[in-house]
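Example record used in the benchmark description.
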Amino acid sequence: MRPKAIVFDVNETLSDMTPMSERFVEVGAGAHLGEIWFSSLLRDGFALAASGDRESFGMIGADLLGRLLQDEPLTRSVDDAVTHIMLGLTELKLHLDVAEGVRALTGAGHNLITLSNGSAQLAEGLLERAGLRSHFDALLSVEDAALWKPARQAYHYAAQNRGIEPNEMLLVAVHPWDTHGAAAAGLRTAWLNRSHSAYPSYFTRPDITIGNLGELAVELGPAKDSA
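Model output (structure tokens):
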């Protein structure tokens, strides 16, 4: 069955977050803190979701940065360093395979949306800078849902927003935790495995595994209404 909507995760799936480590270096901190920061941001967002609570991506990210940078030999104040690093999120670019893959999918008649644990504004800017905003029907954020992904309420919010059933959606993500959560919520899943990693055995296996986004259009073929 062809999906009625293809749902894209944003952070790391569409956006290349490698430059965020450079932002840490620019304020006098270690580049390795970039990965620690983002992993900790997700961890704390997930912890809030597990307890039935939520907070915005930006608030958690900034609060974590303030504490993470306290003991670093910064070249500016902690507040200025936090601002500089957070602004890096507004300047990220797409992974190299995204533009071609997106155009192939919409060219085949597929409907695309995003569903991010970050803000819809960040997704908007990312796609606008790449000239791809018009290829997406909607940019959704869990800030408008009950809980963060991978809680099933987040995926169900996306389905309700588009007026379709969860099993009529296909989630595309680089994160196994995201594909697992989507599968538990009834969505079909595609794991974008750019790094050729092994999939965790304790998560529900994805329906589709691809090495780059261009492969997804080949795997799915034309959308039903364009066949």
